[in-house]
Amino acid sequence: MLTLYYRRFYVNFGRRFLSTCYPEIETEYYCNHKNYPEIKQNINQRKGIGRIDYVLQLYDTLKTTSTSSNSYEDVQKKFYEELTLLPNRTHPLVQQYGENPVTVTTLNGKKDFGSHKPLEFSDITEFLNLMRTDRLGYTCDNKSYYYFSELAEYEEALIKYTVSSLLNKGFKLISVPDILPSAIITSCGMTVNSDRTQIYSLDPMLHGPDLYLSGTAEMSLAGLFRNTIHSSDRLPLKLAAVSRCYRAETSNVLDERGTYRVHQFTKVEMFIVSHPNMSDQMLEYIRETQEELFAPLGIHMRVLDMPPHELGAPAYRKYDIEAWMPGRNNYGEISSCSNCTDYQSRRLNIKFNDGKIDNYVHTLNGTACAIPRMLISLMETHQHAKGKIEIPKILQPYMNNKENISKNMVVPKLKLLKIKH
């Protein structure tokens, strides 16, 4: 049902139609010298992603190089490699934001703790014996964690609540793979095998070439539709997935301490395949869905329309939702949603047909629940001076109607023994 039919596609280069594996990026726009100032400004606003000067140089070289020459294929390959690295266009309103995001709305008020100074998540879980993050050398590296007892139940409750809510809104749940080839990952806008990559690679000598751990279910969901065409009257397609996300990134920033930034975590992701005329509306729909999911949890949040330098290569526009974390006395990002327009669909060849012509769909994504940061905000917001943690009423049915989280007495505090060899 999801895939209507497959079609081999062709890249239009000048007057020639080449049966190739290259994506059909808009050469009419990116390689038009009249658009150079606009593209260059966009690149500069977005952390310098892409080299438009080099793209134009290669394009001009291709036009003057014989297709039968030995160098033509090499130049063509390099041209498309550089072309695909150029960032998406930026929403006209966002172009005016400068360096700072714009606050769209706020949800719930900050909790008044009176004379009680709220504790950080790590202190709460240490006192209640609900988590372990240190001395994990026997099982895993740093930036990892164990959840115990009711904290592990809390994780499952958040997943079930989120999935149930999305199903009620017409999303279709899909179970996705966590190991992907580089073509899917790079087509979604991430880099592999570079100094700045966030992607874990598997050892090619042991596991086969070109295999990587997925950083988000968005990649697998987008890859599911590679080389497909969809009837326009079946759009939008609304999908959701629960997956483990793997990130190689690290941080020594104080505000990202503890489990705020970790190497693996569970996330519920939304993904929408949209008609181009509907993608702006679909982005607002995802944002509103996120607000509807988070507001009943009782945490204070602000919704931000992000400036160009925060977009990354694929996004045309992106909203972030930041939750107040009282123990840290700071906001932390718990969710984002992006309209990638046709950036991913061109690289993955995902099209729609309106009865007359095939064209590229727009893809959108949004975090429905990222567990570690959501737990930080929930536990810090709903803590009481006497040590118990209140569970929001909307989550209680997913935790056997428990109203509070108390000290874990089931799993004892663990002590590592020094073993003499």
Notes on the structure:
The protein has 421 residues and is an alpha+beta fold. It folds into 2 domains: 11-83, no CATH class; 97-405, Bira Bifunctional Protein, Domain 2 (BirA Bifunctional Protein, domain 2), CATH 3.30.930. The protein is built from 12 helices and 19 strands. The strands form 6 sheets. It has an 8-stranded mixed beta sheet. Strands 9-15-16 form a 3-stranded mixed beta sheet. The relative contact order is 0.16. Residues 1-19 have low confidence and may be disordered.
A few lines on this structure:
This protein has 421 residues and is α+β, with helices and mostly antiparallel strands. It has helices at 27-30, 36-45, 52-63, 72-83, 121-128, 149-168, 182-187, 204-207, 217-224, 279-294, 343-348, 371-381, and strands at 11-13, 16-18, 102-107, 131-132, 146-147, 172-173, 179-180, 212-213, 228-231, 237-246, 264-274, 301-305, 317-325, 330-339, 350-353, 358-360, 362-370, 389-390, 404-405.
